[in-house]
């Protein structure tokens, strides 16, 4: 394996801190709170940072209000964001005002309005709306290479050159498809398959079954990085928790591929880091 080019130490530290404050929020008063709202296909995550952009609280819920990046259950989405917001506000004994949100690349013309409305209807002032892989890079700080966010419904790919995004795309294949494969193979429900997949103890057993769908994701990555000088792929998104996924992608693309310790919360934290106090009307 080639030498690590991007250092995930800072990312790992931030994510670990976030995992801690999800369980035990930091209640010391901050002059302002910044919230990242990640309305995912599989999971809705709220990440809250203090005035110094350090994690103080978080909450998440598996939900089915978004499909392939599109809000399909508007009322359901508003309710979940409102409930998670309230849950954190009670723990911190404060009101959360400012939020940032993200959309999958390429869907802005269609759906940025819906995401914006969900966040505002839940009681936030929206301060920033950015695309998901770009949000992830607010945590990773990659100058050159590809950030690939494999979530529940989609795979978002963002290519960076000298710190600037030169290409973004979102393709409809993600962890949901992995769970469908397992549901068929084990003859269990989608929900059971998804839970089985999320238990890291089962990863050795399921990887051979999932290899073809991981290779499909790898070929999607390949066709999108083609023509760009990509020497490194950084994986984020819940699906990349799957043990060994980076090796299959590296083999198939021929490009050095690695991931942080817990890729699941990178995008929500990047969204929160992009939150400001400048309200978008
Ligand atoms: N430990 C784990 N092992 C394998 N897969 C996991 C694990 N934890 C979560 N996942 C999978 O990750 C996916 C959710 O990831 P994530 O929260 O990044 O997606 P999302 O943001 O909701 O979706 P999208 O970005 O496509 O809208 C689900 O398919 C879930 O089953
Ligand atoms: Mg996502």
Please provide a brief summary of the model.
This protein has 281 residues and is of the alpha/beta class.
Comma- or semicolon-separated keywords:
281 residues, alpha/beta, 5-stranded mixed β-sheet, 12 strands, globular, binds adenosine-5'-triphosphate, binds magnesium ion
Q: Would you give an account of this structure?
A:
- With 281 residues, the protein is an alpha/beta fold.
- Helix content is 42%, strand content 24%.
- The chain has nine helices and twelve strands.
- The chain has helices at residues 9-23, 74-92, 108-121, 132-140, 175-186, 190-198, 203-225, 245-253, 266-273, and strands spanning 34-39, 43-49, 55-62, 66-67, 70-71, 98-103, 125-131, 145-150, 155-161, 164-171, 232-236, 256-258.
- The protein has a five-stranded mixed β-sheet, with helices on both faces. Strands 10-9-8-11-12 form a five-stranded mixed β-sheet, with helices on both faces.
- Helix 5 (175-186) packs across helix 6 (190-198) and helix 5 (175-186) packs antiparallel against helix 7.
- The radius of gyration is 18 Å and the shape is globular.
- The chain starts with 8 loop residues before the first helix and ends in an 8-residue tail after the last helix.
- The mean pLDDT is 93.
- The protein binds adenosine-5'-triphosphate (ATP) and magnesium ion.
- Magnesium ion binds at residues 38, 40, 132, 149, 151, 237, 267.
């Amino acid at each position: 394996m080639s030498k690590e080019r991007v250092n995930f130490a800072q990312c790992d530290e931030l994510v670990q801190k976030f995992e801690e404050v999800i369980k035990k929020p930091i209640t010391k008063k901050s002059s302002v709170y910044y919230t990242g709202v990640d309305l995912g296909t599989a999971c809705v995550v709220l990440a809250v940072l203090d005035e110094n952009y350090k994690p103080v609280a978080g909450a998440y819920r598996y939900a089915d209000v978004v499909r392939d990046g599109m809000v399909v259950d508007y009322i359901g989405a508003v309710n979940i964001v409102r409930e998670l917001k309230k849950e954190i506000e009670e723990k911190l004994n404060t009101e959360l005002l400012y939020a940032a949100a993200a959309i999958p690349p390429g869907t802005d013309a269609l759906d940025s309005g819906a995401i914006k409305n969900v966040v505002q209807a839940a009681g936030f002032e929206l301060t920033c709306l950015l695309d998901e892989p770009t949000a992830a890079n607010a945590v990773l700080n990659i100058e050159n290479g590809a950030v690939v966010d494999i979530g529940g419904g989609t795979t978002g790919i963002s290519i960076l050159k000298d710190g600037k995004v030169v290409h973004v795309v979102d393709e409809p294949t993600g962890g949901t498809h992995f769970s469908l494969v397992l549901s068929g193979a084990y003859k269990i429900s989608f929900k059971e398959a998804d839970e089985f997949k999320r238990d890291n103890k089962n990863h050795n057993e399921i990887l051979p079954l999932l290899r073809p769908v991981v290779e499909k994701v790898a070929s999607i990555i390949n066709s999108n990085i083609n023509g760009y000088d990509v020497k490194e792929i950084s994986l984020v998104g819940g699906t990349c928790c799957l043990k060994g996924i980076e090796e299959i992608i590296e083999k198939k693309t021929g490009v050095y591929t690695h991931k942080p310790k817990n890729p699941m919360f990178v995008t929500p934290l990047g969204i929160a880091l992009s939150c400001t106090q400048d309200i978008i009307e």
